[in-house]
């Protein structure tokens, strides 16, 4: 690895890091909100909403991510006669895919809350909102924090797919710099280290959190 070459091009790499983190932030926010809504539909008493939630989860979990990204980027402009940037189309698609996974994580956390807790809340005469906000959701949140953190690390790695539609994230920056200097080993190794430096501390935190919650 040519460290001096990396330092001379650190500005471009830093720009790629900023784009990657921006995609992650936008996509995760969409995934959290969408996952909560889909989970609520999945647990709804309405058969129509439950069916929609199941179809949504199956579609986005089964369809390859890169196909959805390509479809959003290339087909939406043709259908609606508008332009869509790779950054926004990719971020939204990753968020919608993430919502399908988070909905199942949320549902599993809620299902893991002992049934006796729900029955006790009803015996105390709590309404629907207090029952969920005071009794069920706080307990479910503790159960899903660790899986959520683990999923966010997977989401961050998944942002590299957007380089296929020209989004100047960290991976595409490294590829272009490698092509310009013919030093692919240097730049691809550099971004591997950067991704590791970002993701590894989060992974350690998730494991520590799992152990703490298991003790409780």
Structure description:
The protein is mainly α. The chain has a single domain, classed as Orthogonal Bundle (MetI-like fold), CATH 1.10.3720. The protein is 84% helix and 0% strand. It contains nine helices and no strands. Helix 2 packs antiparallel against helix 8. The radius of gyration is 21 Å and the shape is flat. The termini are far apart.
SSE diagram, text form:
Elements: H1 3-8, H2 10-42, H3 47-62, H4 65-80, H5 86-112, H6 115-123, H7 128-158, H8 170-181, H9 184-215
Helix pairs in contact: 2-3, 2-5, 2-8, 3-5, 4-5, 5-7, 7-9, 8-9
Helix tally?
9
| Uncertain segments | none
CATH architecture: Orthogonal Bundle
Give the DSSP E fraction (strand runs of 2 or more residues): under 5%
The CATH superfamily label reads MetI-like
CATH class equals Mainly Alpha
Secondary structure: helix percent = over 70%
Give the strand tally. Answer: 0
Structure class: mainly alpha
Rounded radius of gyration (Å) = 21 Å
The 3D shape can be described as: flat
Q: Could you give the order of the helices and strands?
A: HHHHHHHHH
Q: Biggest sheet, open or closed, and with what strands and sense? A: none
What is the average of the pLDDT values?
A: 87
CATH third-level topology:
MetI-like fold
